[in-house]
Amino acid sequence: MTQERKKQMKIVLQMVSGYGGEFRSWRLPEAKADAYTDMDLYVEMAQLAEKGKIHALFMADTPALTNHLETESPMHSMDPLIAMTAVARATKRIGLVGTFSTTFNEAYNLARHLKTLDVISHGRVGWNAVTTSTSAAAANFGQHLASRQERYGRAHEFIEAVQGLWRSWGEGVYLHDKETGQFADMGQIRPIHYQGTYIQTSGPLPIPPSEQGQPPIFQAGPSPDGIHLAGRFASGVYANPFTIEEAKAYRQMLRAEAEKNGRQADEINVFTGFMFTIADSKEEALARRRQLLEFDQDELAQRLAYLGAMVGLNFQGIDPYQPLPQSWLQLARANPGDPRSPRALEVLKEGYSPIDTLAHGVINYHPVVVGTATDVADFLQEWFEAGASDGFSIVPDLAHDGIKAFVEQVVPLLQDRGLFHQDYEGQTLREHLDLPYQYGRQE
Ligand SMILES: Cc1cc2nc3c(=O)[nH]c(=O)nc-3n(C[C@H](O)[C@H](O)[C@H](O)COP(=O)(O)O)c2cc1C
Q: Where is FMN bound in this sequence (predicted)?
């Protein structure tokens, strides 16, 4: 591993439901309105991301309906496993990281699905193992949501069991030798008899290793329990800090937790969630986001009220399309209860109207850059060089043109600056992410 390569950022692209991270972007003129069900389009987007050497596609998922489809597109693909399978067959190098809950799955089923996909994709699969804290998901499985302690207790056992099942077929014993008549060495295909409090499974799982051995584990969830789970198992963490300082502290905690669990700090890669709208000028990018806001006037009113609360002002009765008067800005204070407030106040103080401040994405789920490709590259560079993140989990507002803009405009800038690789490091996801081959349980 060269010094230069060590310093390069890793990027995964979030494939949301086929549109992007803005749930009303399906209405933009550039959008394909039925992208949710159009797997050909999904595949095309994945192929484009692969051209841009994006390390992996990343699919979040919750097994429940979690937003209002009257006006918004879904938050997730129809089914991540099936979408990943379709994409795997039409791509060659890009990694495929899917989110699968440890609370609402059975270890044997999931071990089987992921290993099969890992084998047929030639070692390109990763598993984002989340505990899921949505009551609607619990209801879909005839359950009430278990306590955090129980969900994390189950998560530890679940991952141990899955990794055990993956190892239950020994290495080098898939013989399929017509001469000798031996298909496999049964002496090396053994049950695991896993007996936990939450998970019991016998195995063996009759699937040989992939080229990367087995999928690396990702994790998302910032509680101390979440950090402990990541410290034990995760090679990647999907994080959602809003400031560089917050991100650095979180990354340090994760690295320390990895070491506490007998691993190297560098074995954990933090992927900070980041959203963007790219256009030829900042004004053009803002115009697109104003349009997104105006698709739903009721929600716009709610967002304005929330923005007011973020900076300690009451926006009732104001013209939200005009910058705030100086006298108001002097009274404004960032609300310490929301880490996004300082940025909101900063944008208002730059002279943007409340509507344009919202258009900057100041109350989105992740930090947002609205501007040119250079603005996006500058943001990524600043966070990366500050040691805030090992990489990014990027989310375009609209996938259809956003992926293209990132791949064609931002990637070359990052490459010219020596911040992003020129090509994939190898064939497998582990090789792309500089992770060692692993087969079996993380001890
Ligand atoms: C950045 C991020 C992404 C997440 N993505 C998902 C997801 O796709 N599906 C899911 O069921 N839960 C997801 N979660 C929720 C976690 O699974 C977890 O239930 C939640 O964060 C509560 O756990 P915690 O107390 O450790 O934060 C996500 C959490 C974070 C912070």
A: 61, 99, 152, 223
pLDDT at 3: 45
Q: How far is the CA of 254 from the centre of ligand 1 (A)?
A: 16
Q: What is the pLDDT of residue 4?
A: 46
364 in any annotated domain: no
Ligand 1 atom 25: the closest Cα is on which residue? 223
**Residue 345: pLDDT over 60:** yes
CA distance linking residue 149 with residue 119, whole number of Å: 34
- Report how far ligand 1's centroid is from the alpha carbon of 362 (Å): 21
CA 405 – ligand 1 centroid, Å: 29
Mean pLDDT of the region 119-127: 98
Which residue in this structure is represented by tokens 């690789």?
421
- Do the annotations mark residue 99 as ligand-binding? yes
The alpha-helical segments, DSSP class H, found in 277-406 are: 282-294, 297-310, 326-331, 341-349, 354-359, 373-385, 399-405
CATH number of the domain within which 90 lies: 3.20.20.30
* Residue 428 in domain: yes
Which pair of structure tokens corresponds to residue 396? 């375009």
> Is the residue at 204 inside a domain?
yes
Same domain for 414 and 310: no
Q: Are residues 336 and 189 part of one domain?
A: no
* Mutational test site, ligand 1, from 15, 132, 134, max ligand atoms within 8 Å of CB: 132
Ligand 1 surroundings by CB, under 6 angstroms: 60-62, 99, 101, 130-133, 148, 220-223, 225-226, 238, 240, 273
pLDDT attached to residue 2:
43
Report how far apart the first and last C-alpha atoms of the chain are (Å, whole number).
25
Residues 397 and 292: beta-carbon distance below 8 Å: yes
Task: Give residue 129 CA to ligand 1 midpoint distance, Å.
Answer: 9
Task: Tell me which residue range forms the domain holding 290.
Answer: 282-359
Domain boundary residue, one of 326, 359, 392? 359
- What b/e sequence results for 253-275 when a residue is b if at least 16 CB atoms lie within 10 Å of its CB, and e otherwise? ebbebbeeeebeeebbbbbbbbb
